[in-house]
Amino acid sequence: MNAPTPFTLPSPLAALTGRLPAYPGSVVLVTALNLGVARQLPRDVGDMLLHKRLRIHVRDARVTFDFTWTGGAFAPRARHADIDLCISASAHDFLLLAQRQQDPDTLFFNRRLVMEGDTELGLVVKNTLDALELPVLDLQQWTPRQVLSRLAALRPGMGAAPGARP
Protein backbone atom coordinates (compact mmCIF):
# COMPACT_ATOMS: atom_id res chain seq x y z
CA MET A 1 0.00 0.00 0.00
CA ASN A 2 1.39 3.41 -0.89
CA ALA A 3 1.95 5.60 2.11
CA PRO A 4 -0.06 8.81 1.84
CA THR A 5 1.88 12.04 2.20
CA PRO A 6 1.60 13.13 5.85
CA PHE A 7 -0.42 16.28 6.40
CA THR A 8 0.18 18.64 9.31
CA LEU A 9 -2.32 21.21 10.49
CA PRO A 10 -1.18 24.75 9.66
CA SER A 11 0.22 26.65 12.66
CA PRO A 12 -2.59 29.25 12.77
CA LEU A 13 -5.22 26.50 12.93
CA ALA A 14 -3.19 24.59 15.54
CA ALA A 15 -2.92 27.77 17.61
CA LEU A 16 -6.72 28.01 17.55
CA THR A 17 -7.43 24.34 18.32
CA GLY A 18 -4.80 24.42 21.06
CA ARG A 19 -6.87 27.04 22.88
CA LEU A 20 -10.09 25.02 22.82
CA PRO A 21 -11.19 23.45 26.12
CA ALA A 22 -10.27 19.75 26.19
CA TYR A 23 -13.27 18.37 28.07
CA PRO A 24 -15.92 18.71 25.31
CA GLY A 25 -13.59 16.90 22.92
CA SER A 26 -13.11 14.14 25.47
CA VAL A 27 -16.90 13.75 25.67
CA VAL A 28 -17.08 13.35 21.88
CA LEU A 29 -14.21 10.84 21.90
CA VAL A 30 -15.71 8.66 24.66
CA THR A 31 -19.09 8.73 22.92
CA ALA A 32 -17.44 7.32 19.80
CA LEU A 33 -15.52 4.76 21.87
CA ASN A 34 -18.67 3.70 23.68
CA LEU A 35 -20.54 3.26 20.40
CA GLY A 36 -17.76 1.43 18.57
CA VAL A 37 -15.58 -0.28 21.16
CA ALA A 38 -17.20 -0.67 24.60
CA ARG A 39 -19.60 -3.50 23.70
CA GLN A 40 -16.81 -5.52 22.09
CA LEU A 41 -14.20 -4.99 24.79
CA PRO A 42 -13.05 -8.38 26.15
CA ARG A 43 -13.50 -8.73 29.91
CA ASP A 44 -9.78 -9.27 30.60
CA VAL A 45 -8.91 -6.11 28.68
CA GLY A 46 -11.63 -4.21 30.54
CA ASP A 47 -10.20 -5.44 33.84
CA MET A 48 -6.75 -4.20 32.82
CA LEU A 49 -8.14 -0.81 31.71
CA LEU A 50 -10.32 -0.30 34.79
CA HIS A 51 -9.84 3.24 36.12
CA LYS A 52 -6.64 3.77 34.11
CA ARG A 53 -5.99 7.37 33.11
CA LEU A 54 -5.76 7.40 29.31
CA ARG A 55 -4.93 10.22 26.96
CA ILE A 56 -5.05 10.76 23.21
CA HIS A 57 -2.76 13.60 22.17
CA VAL A 58 -3.11 15.08 18.69
CA ARG A 59 0.29 16.70 18.37
CA ASP A 60 -0.19 19.04 15.44
CA ALA A 61 -3.59 20.23 16.68
CA ARG A 62 -2.19 20.74 20.18
CA VAL A 63 -5.19 19.02 21.78
CA THR A 64 -5.52 16.20 24.28
CA PHE A 65 -8.45 14.03 25.21
CA ASP A 66 -8.38 12.42 28.66
CA PHE A 67 -10.65 9.53 29.57
CA THR A 68 -10.95 6.33 31.59
CA TRP A 69 -12.71 2.95 31.49
CA THR A 70 -15.25 2.68 34.34
CA GLY A 71 -16.01 -1.00 33.92
CA GLY A 72 -19.07 -0.47 31.75
CA ALA A 73 -18.21 2.50 29.59
CA PHE A 74 -15.53 5.00 28.74
CA ALA A 75 -15.88 8.29 30.60
CA PRO A 76 -14.22 11.67 30.03
CA ARG A 77 -11.74 12.92 32.61
CA ALA A 78 -10.50 16.36 33.44
CA ARG A 79 -6.94 16.91 32.27
CA HIS A 80 -4.45 15.74 34.86
CA ALA A 81 -0.66 15.62 34.94
CA ASP A 82 -0.52 11.94 35.93
CA ILE A 83 -1.64 9.50 33.24
CA ASP A 84 -1.15 5.77 32.74
CA LEU A 85 -1.00 5.77 28.94
CA CYS A 86 -0.71 8.50 26.33
CA ILE A 87 -1.03 7.73 22.63
CA SER A 88 0.06 10.59 20.39
CA ALA A 89 0.15 11.17 16.65
CA SER A 90 -0.78 13.85 14.16
CA ALA A 91 -4.41 14.46 13.20
CA HIS A 92 -3.62 13.04 9.77
CA ASP A 93 -2.17 9.81 11.20
CA PHE A 94 -5.14 9.32 13.55
CA LEU A 95 -7.42 9.81 10.55
CA LEU A 96 -5.45 7.22 8.55
CA LEU A 97 -5.81 4.77 11.45
CA ALA A 98 -9.57 5.38 11.70
CA GLN A 99 -9.95 4.88 7.95
CA ARG A 100 -7.83 1.70 8.08
CA GLN A 101 -5.47 3.18 5.48
CA GLN A 102 -2.46 2.73 7.75
CA ASP A 103 -1.65 0.19 10.43
CA PRO A 104 -0.43 1.24 13.88
CA ASP A 105 2.76 -0.85 13.70
CA THR A 106 3.98 1.01 10.61
CA LEU A 107 3.25 4.38 12.20
CA PHE A 108 4.89 3.25 15.45
CA PHE A 109 8.07 2.04 13.80
CA ASN A 110 8.24 5.23 11.72
CA ARG A 111 7.90 7.19 15.00
CA ARG A 112 4.70 8.83 13.84
CA LEU A 113 2.62 7.08 16.55
CA VAL A 114 4.03 7.27 20.07
CA MET A 115 2.91 5.47 23.23
CA GLU A 116 4.15 6.79 26.55
CA GLY A 117 3.55 5.37 29.99
CA ASP A 118 2.56 1.79 30.74
CA THR A 119 4.04 -0.11 27.77
CA GLU A 120 2.16 -3.33 28.55
CA LEU A 121 -1.12 -1.44 28.68
CA GLY A 122 -0.27 0.24 25.37
CA LEU A 123 0.35 -3.09 23.67
CA VAL A 124 -2.89 -4.52 25.04
CA VAL A 125 -4.82 -1.48 23.74
CA LYS A 126 -3.17 -1.70 20.30
CA ASN A 127 -3.70 -5.46 19.98
CA THR A 128 -7.31 -5.18 21.16
CA LEU A 129 -8.11 -2.44 18.64
CA ASP A 130 -6.48 -4.52 15.89
CA ALA A 131 -8.65 -7.52 16.82
CA LEU A 132 -12.00 -5.74 17.12
CA GLU A 133 -14.47 -5.38 14.28
CA LEU A 134 -14.59 -1.62 14.09
CA PRO A 135 -16.33 0.44 11.46
CA VAL A 136 -14.06 2.22 9.03
CA LEU A 137 -14.39 5.98 9.33
CA ASP A 138 -16.05 7.14 6.14
CA LEU A 139 -15.92 10.94 5.99
CA GLN A 140 -18.75 10.98 3.43
CA GLN A 141 -21.08 9.88 6.25
CA TRP A 142 -20.22 13.02 8.22
CA THR A 143 -21.29 15.74 5.82
CA PRO A 144 -23.71 18.20 7.48
CA ARG A 145 -26.61 16.84 5.41
CA GLN A 146 -25.86 13.24 6.46
CA VAL A 147 -25.55 14.15 10.14
CA LEU A 148 -28.78 16.19 10.13
CA SER A 149 -30.60 13.35 8.40
CA ARG A 150 -29.44 10.84 11.03
CA LEU A 151 -30.38 13.19 13.86
CA ALA A 152 -33.84 13.68 12.38
CA ALA A 153 -34.27 9.90 12.17
CA LEU A 154 -33.44 9.61 15.88
CA ARG A 155 -36.17 12.08 16.84
CA PRO A 156 -39.52 10.81 15.56
CA GLY A 157 -42.05 13.53 14.91
CA MET A 158 -39.41 16.20 14.46
CA GLY A 159 -39.77 16.16 10.71
CA ALA A 160 -37.06 15.96 8.11
CA ALA A 161 -33.80 17.82 8.40
CA PRO A 162 -33.79 21.21 6.70
CA GLY A 163 -33.02 20.79 3.04
CA ALA A 164 -33.42 17.00 3.22
CA ARG A 165 -35.19 15.32 0.36
CA PRO A 166 -38.04 12.88 1.07
Strand order of the largest sheet: 3-2-1-4-5
The name of the CATH topology of the largest domain is Nonspecific Lipid-transfer Protein, Chain A
Number of strands: 5
Instruction: Categorize the overall geometry.
Output: globular
Helix fraction, binned, reads 40-55%
Q: Please report which band the strand proportion falls in: under 5%, 5-15%, 15-25%, 25-35%, 35-45% or over 45%.
A: 5-15%
Rg computed from alpha carbons, rounded to a whole number of angstroms: 17 Å
Give the helix/strand class.
alpha+beta
Mean pLDDT: 83
Major β-sheet, in short?
A: 5 strands, mixed
Total of domains: 2
In CATH terms, what is the architecture of the largest domain?
A: 2-Layer Sandwich
Helical segment count? 7
* CATH homologous group name of the largest domain: SCP2 sterol-binding domain
Could you name the ranges where pLDDT drops below 50 across 5 or more consecutive residues? none
H/E element sequence: HHHEEEEHHEHH
What is the straight-line distance between the termini?
40 Å
Question: Briefly, what CATH class of the largest domain?
Answer: Alpha Beta
